[in-house]
Design goal:
Elements (H helix, E strand, L loop, with lengths): L36 H22 L20 E3 L2 E3 L1 H14 L6 H27 L6 H16 L3 H10 L4 H21 L8 H13 L4 E11 L5 H16 L4 H8 L10 E5 L6 H7 L7 E7 L2 E12 L9 E9 L7 H15 L8 H8 L2 E9 L5 H8 L10 E3 L3 E11 L9 H27 L2 E3 L1
Antiparallel strand pairs: 1-2, 1-11, 3-4, 3-6, 5-6, 7-8, 7-10, 9-10
Helix pairs in contact: 2-3, 3-6, 4-5, 4-6, 7-14
């Protein structure tokens, strides 16, 4: 069963916002025209400078003495946002989605930190819904229910009741997910009306970007996920400890997208930390040095950089405007031999050896079915498999095969032993890159994102929020 965090994308490319907390909505733009970690951190540096200026104006003493025992970080996770109540139940149900996305492997201490972040996310979501209503942008119940049913159809076979039951079983609720859907639809519709019409990208800017892309042909691009945590001299050790805890959770199987959404302070947090396709020159040197030696699927960090720490995850890498062999479409036959229940490891190894030697004698895919029948094995055929969709361990060996050859055997006592036989291969064509319209759309989306972040920041600044 898929976790709710990984439910399919139910909208277009995300504009902005952290409300996509439990749906795992990932951006898949072919080329990031902006929004890189360097830009995100430049924004943080500017913010720090502004805070320093503000401190000077406020005349904050260097030797601060706190009167009373009040700790603003210790409170029950409830709030009233412009008169609208967020209850502890609201936080618990949204938190349950995150915990479930990480397979329940979240410590009690981690859950307390997550609760505060969930509260901040729900406050943003509430502000977005309120602003949309005040602007006359309505999302009716029918639209929300249609999206909810679509999610159920994609994950539970056209059965919303099954999704209802699943959400309740993990400690969440249909109402919590529907509220999140309403928040995303409301905010995106508001941005389309109040922000997008005023964004303009000139033809000259698009042409310049496309020329830069062509000039970079053949150079390597990296698709990187990043979690950025800001730090200063006072809290550096605490932030470092938090970053190490996040890395440990990720190594235990935690969702990188989930943690990026919850903890990253870069602008890319809204899309699960995904920086899109970038060249290493776009990264700060400290990060570029680390990323250069990483392989797809590898995690690195925390890495100390000016202003804080970064955790990197290399999603993929490729060469600009060059055909990637992993985009080849393969025609495959999978030959599988299962082991009877109770088979010992020794017996399984012996049977696997016989299986491996036998499949090597098969002369092409035309003999596969008959040979499999003699072995008592089954055959499954698939003519539309992209090489990049195979497990990383199989990709390289599969791309080196000639037609009719098989991979080395793989499997386990529980799953049996199997091989993949290559029956055909359609190699990818060299890409010309995004079209003029696609590039222009990407650049416009990025500018909408930046404007939307300012919009949400203004809503936070003007909000009346009471904490309980």
């Amino acid at each position: 069963m898929k976790s709710i965090y990984r439910l399919p994308h139910f909208r277009m490319r995300p504009l902005v916002g952290r409300a996509a907390l439990a749906l795992g909505l990932a951006a898949t733009a072919a080329l990031p025209v902006a929004g890189s970690v360097a830009q995100a951190q430049a924004g943080n540096t500017q913010a720090e400078g502004a805070a320093a200026d503000a401190s000077g104006q406020l005349n904050i003493p260097a030797n601060v003495q706190i009167f009373g025992k009040s700790d603003p970080n210790v409170r029950r996770a409830t709030a009233i946002v412009n008169g609208e109540i967020l209850t502890g139940t609201d936080i618990d149900q949204r938190l349950a989605l995150i915990v479930n996305a990480n397979g329940g492997k979240v410590s009690a201490e981690e859950q307390e930190r997550l609760r505060l972040q969930v509260l901040r996310n729900l406050i943003d979501e509430t502000l977005q819904i309120q602003e949309a209503k005040s602007a006359g942008v309505d999302v009716d119940d029918d639209e929300v229910n249609q999206t909810y049913e679509r999610v159920a159809q994609q994950n539970f076979g056209q059965n919303p009741a099954a999704l209802d039951k699943y959400l309740v079983s993990i400690g969440s609720s249909p109402a919590s997910l529907k509220r999140q859907i309403r928040g995303e639809l409301s905010w995106q519709r508001l941005l389309r009306r109040n922000v997008q019409p005023f964004i303009n990208v000139s033809d000259g800017e698009v042409k310049e970007m496309m020329e830069r892309l062509k000039a970079a042909k053949g150079t390597e691009e990296y698709r990187i996920g990043e979690i950025y945590l800001s730090a200063n001299d006072q809290n550096r050790s605490q932030v470092m400890a938090n970053a190490n805890q996040i890395v440990e959770q990720l190594k235990k199987g935690g969702s990188f997208v989930a943690y990026a959404r919850q903890y990253s302070e870069a602008s890319t947090a809204a899309v699960g930390g995904d920086l899109g396709w970038i060249r290493l020159a776009q990264l700060p040197q400290d990060l570029a040095n680390v990323a250069n030696s990483m392989q797809p699927g590898q995690l690195a960090g925390p890495i100390e950089i000016p202003g804080g720490y970064s955790i990197l995850y290399l999603i993929d890498k490729r060469q600009v405007l060059t055909a990637d062999p992993r985009d080849a479409v393969l025609s495959l036959k999978q030959i599988s031999l299962t082991f009877p229940k109770g088979t010992t490891e020794k017996d399984a190894a012996a049977k696997a050896a016989v299986f491996a030697s036998t499949v090597k004698t098969i002369h092409g895919c035309g003999e596969a079915d008959a040979a499999a029948a003699k072995l008592g094995a089954s055959v499954v055929t698939n003519d539309q498999v992209k090489a990049r969709d195979l497990p990383a361990a199989l990709q390289d060996s599969m791309l080196k095969l000639s037609i009719g050859e098989v991979t080395p055997p793989f499997g386990s006592i529980e799953d049996g032993v199997r091989v993949l036989m290559l029956c055909g291969r359609d190699d990818p064509k060299v890409s010309d890159g995004p079209s003029f319209e696609e590039m222009q759309s990407q650049m416009e989306d990025d500018r909408v994102n930046k404007r939307a972040q300012t919009y949400l920041r203004d809503l936070r600044r003007d909000a009346v929020i009471e904490y309980n």
